């Protein structure tokens, strides 16, 4: 059972607004500033890598929503995030370009979600190692993922 439409509006607006919050937090930091590569926690992404990671995930999330909308309970395989870091050389990517890529990807994702019917929000996909997820559950997961990285960015900026 999905959230009532008015409650879903909050989720939708939060998803749409996250890139703006991130942009505000990072406003005025030049691409050459060493802050992008500081790593207060050696086990977590640097700011540069966070932006590459977020930008890379937008088309993955969008594809999953489209498949859930268009297919009957599709299999949503895992993505090796560690391999993405290596393959896409996160440590040397332009953070400003990735913020723009993240914003564009999120606009496209929000467009897909905005076009869903009430019934579409209850459609499912099978997520490896997780089980069945509804569109609404995946959207909530993405918002949680956004929040996790927003908190990380704030802590990195304070460090």
Topology:
Blueprint (H helix, E strand, L loop, with lengths): L4 H22 L20 H24 L4 E2 L4 H7 L7 H20 L9 E4 L3 E4 H24 L1
Parallel strand pairs: 1-2
Antiparallel strand pairs: 2-3
Structural notes for this entry:
The protein is mostly helical and 159 residues long. The chain has a domain at 1-28 and 98-159: dinb family like domain (Four Helix Bundle (Hemerythrin (Met), subunit A)), CATH 1.20.120.450. 61% of the residues lie in helices and 6% in strands. The chain is built from five helices and three strands, in the order ααβααββα. The protein has helices at 5-26, 47-70, 81-87, 95-114, 135-158; strands at residues 75-76, 124-127, 131-134. The chain has a three-stranded mixed β-sheet. A hairpin with a 3-residue loop joins strand 2 (124-127) and strand 3 (131-134). Helix 1 (5-26) packs antiparallel against helix 4 (95-114) and helix 1 runs parallel beside helix 5 (135-158). The longest helix is centred in the middle third of the chain and has 24 residues, at 47-70. It is globular, with a radius of gyration of 16 Å. The termini are far apart.
């Amino acid at each position: 059972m999905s959230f009532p439409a008015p409650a879903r509006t909050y989720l939708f607006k939060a998803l749409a607004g996250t890139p703006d919050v991130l942009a505000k937090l990072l406003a005025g930091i030049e691409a050459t500033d060493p802050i992008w590569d500081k790593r207060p926690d050696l086990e977590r992404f640097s700011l540069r890598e966070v932006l590459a990671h977020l930008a890379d995930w937008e088309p993955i999330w969008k594809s999953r929503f489209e498949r859930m909308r268009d297919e009957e309970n599709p299999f949503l395989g895992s993505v090796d995030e560690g391999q993405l870091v290596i393959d896409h050389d996160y440590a040397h990517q332009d953070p400003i370009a990735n913020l723009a890529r993240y914003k564009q990807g999120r606009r496209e994702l929000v467009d897909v979600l905005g076009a869903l019917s009430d019934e579409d929000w209850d459609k499912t996909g099978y997520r490896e190692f997780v089980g069945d997820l509804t569109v609404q559950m995946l959207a909530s997961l993405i918002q949680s993922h956004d929040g996790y990285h927003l908190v990380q960015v704030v802590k990195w900026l304070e460090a």
